Amino acid sequence: MFDIVIIEPGATGVSLLSQIQDEVYSLRFKKPEIAVFNPLCTFASGNAFGDAHNIDKVNTPSSMVSVSAMEPGRFEHWLRATCGCQERWPSRLLYSEFIHQTYKDINENEILQITEFPGSVISVIRKNEFFIITDDNGNTVSAHKVVMCIGSPPADSFPEFNGTPGFINHYSQYLPSVNDEIIIAGNSLTAIDAFRYIHHKGGSSAHLCSRNGFIPTYLTREENYTPVCLSWKNILSAIQYPEDTFDVFIRLLHKELCLLRNNGEFKIAISLLKKGNHTEYFYFLLERAKKGNLPCQDTLVSTRPYMHKIWSVMTIKQKQNFLTKYGVLWATWRPSVPYEVFYELSQASVNEKLKFHQIQTPPVYQDQKFSIRTSSGTLKSNYFWDATGGNYNIKKMRNTLLENLLINKLIENHPHPCGGINIDPLILQCKVNGNNIHGLYNIGPLSKGCLFSTNALWFNVQCCEHLGQTVGIRIRKKCQGDHMIILLPFVYLCIGWILGKTSWDLKSSVSLLLTKIIIPVVITFNISTQFSDMGGIISATALIMLIMIAIGKYTNQDPVMTLCFVYLNIGWLGLPVASALFGNDAAIIFIAAYVGSSIIGNSAGAGMLSGNKSSLIKILKTPPVMALIIGILLIPLRQQIVLWFDYFYDLAKFLLNFLGMGILGLWLAKIKFSARDFRLEILFFIKRAFVISLIITLLLFIAHLWHQPLLTDNPATLYLFCFLPPAANIIVLETHYLGTGRSARTISCGTCISIIVISVYSIFILGLRNF
């Protein structure tokens, strides 16, 4: 069970990881277990940056695109250190490298326990208080929280043209040999990127067509104008009721623009556009920008810190009115383009390589040409590039996960009237029919209808900071509870010891329940759902035990003591303590080791004590091996098993912890031993711990070479094996084959020593976490 699953972490997801890392570090939490799902081709960068071309620019100043609130200037520092320069508007691919490096740094810091799944999530199912997540590679995990950072999935703005010769919706489809004029639908940054790609490839002229006919504006280098009327202070003073928000904001905006009607750039720029004087439009804005004289743009930019708050208190109707009347103006004048790009557009306009048009009718394909009627005449071309940037209507988006979320009612079936999905703007949780889906979050463009500024990275970083604090609160509560959970196995031991002092003989029935039912259930569940992580550990455990047995035959002629040296109590003592102390990954390691040791311990042990080789049939009939076989057969049904039997698995884990420690208490209550016994067994314990520690160290070295994160990320879990006592099953084998009970003293004393040492080890681990 993971604490958090992050789906497709581009810049926003990496920012969230950075914020969670900061929270965990500052409060000294236990490492949260985080699963990251992302296609390998855009891992930790996202389509917006990882899929970009080298000419594409980030349209936000480098000072505003750090992914960490703790280091707002980190990207600028990275630029200077990496490139020896400080570009104001770097390329998207360069920024992608920065995101990759930031993610790599987070991984190497090892403050978070991150597991990577290089695939696309296709299914999220809610099950009680957690979620089951499945990707297109067949991986299935469960998690308490799911955070979607999937950006804006592609949508079909012109589905009727799919498959039509000459229809383009990605730069990779453009052929540099094209000499025909190209129609580009859109006037956003996506459309500008499309034109620049054509222009840099030496293509012919392009026509940018949009419903409003607007042209992008230049991003001013500095904001010199401070609004007089439109300010947060004036808005707060004027608003008395939430219903007044829209009217007050628009009234103050109009009042501000009226003050600028003679000195502002709006009036003249729009007049030039209407007259079709595009070249003059570019020159006018370039000259004003050089002097830092773009007060209208400065006014819109000044709303950046508080616009999402205004948006959140608007009613749906007010939001729709705003988008209808001012959406185009806002989209064109506030998120402007860098000077370098704007100048390139102006030169293309002068050379008649770029023309802008206002669409009057939808495009059609007839006579093997694309045709579209605009305010300046009808355009015809063999090529039509859809650069509208997609559609925020979730029902029109091409995304398997969104379709699955709709089916499972984890997002609303009807799209948000203003685009995207419905979320709670305060805590970023998805909402369905007015109710929050607890544990399911979304950050990024899909929250457009609820948060307004979701295309801006700086805003998404703010959202990540807020969500990181929310996650930190949950992890803190979990860690506080972990202190008690770690003590529970020893409480269960005491309960067993007390019951052992009574006249009730529970050992046989409890032992039978554990070995025949509970442990096989735990093995079957984990093998069927996590076999890819466990197969290697099972094999490694079996191999290590065989090597130790072979060495033991030459160093110790007593087969009973050899078994006590190599066959450890992984199931009844190790597994309960490891799962309580270290969590899910530790449980997977110990279950796999238990399966491997049970196979070798029962088969080789029987052969050593009886003097005969164990038959394959007997080995296959042992409960651990049968559970292993059943688990492997159930692997194709892993998603259904997690969904249907997770409750029973939780119950089995509890019974394993309770009964496993309880039966040790029952045994300890019945056996008496002296101080001399302890002295002898302490030496035996130290020898075994030393040998196992050497093996674990060698295993970790090999795991690093072979890139096995389950092992390399959990060294403390592996070294817990050093402190385990001999397996209680040895006394059963000895009694059956030899009719003696010499191992009882070694097992009992070793168990007492192990309990003391493991208690100290647990306190040490807790101390490290809280240091």
Question: What would you say this structure looks like, in words?
Answer:
- The protein folds into three domains: 2-151 and 425-474, FAD/NAD(P)-binding domain (3-Layer(bba) Sandwich), CATH 3.50.50; 164-386, no CATH class; 505-770, no CATH class.
- Helix content is 56%, strand content 11%.
- The radius of gyration is 33 Å and the shape is elongated.
- The mean pLDDT is 81.
Output the keywords.
771 residues, alpha/beta, FAD/NAD(P)-binding domain, 3 domains, 5-stranded parallel beta sheet, 56% helix, 11% strand, HpyO/CreE_NAD-binding, FAD-dependent urate hydroxylase HpyO/Asp monooxygenase CreE-like FAD/NAD(P)-binding domain-containing protein
Shape: elongated
How big a fraction of the residues is strand? 5-15%
Largest sheet: 8 strands, mixed
Summed up, the domain count is 3
- Which bin fits the share of residues in helices? 55-70%
Instruction: Report the oligomer.
Output: single chain
Chain-wise SSE layout:
Layout lengths: L1 E6 L3 H17 L5 E5 L9 H4 L23 H10 L8 H18 L3 E5 L3 E7 L2 E6 L4 E9 L18 E2 L13 E4 L3 H12 L5 E5 L21 H7 L6 H15 L6 H9 L3 H13 L4 H7 L5 H7 L2 H18 L5 H12 L3 E5 L5 E3 L2 E6 L2 E5 L1 E4 L13 H8 L21 E4 L2 E8 L5 H4 L5 H44 L6 H49 L3 H8 L3 H13 L1 H27 L5 H6 L1 H11 L4 H33 L4 H31 L3 H4 L2 H5 L9 H9 L5 H28 L1
Parallel strand pairs: 1-2, 1-6, 2-3, 6-16, 7-14, 8-9, 8-14, 9-10
Antiparallel strand pairs: 4-5, 5-6, 11-12, 12-13, 15-16
Helix pairs in contact: 1-4, 1-16, 8-9, 9-13, 16-19, 16-23, 17-18, 17-20, 17-22, 17-23, 18-20, 19-20, 19-23, 20-27, 24-28
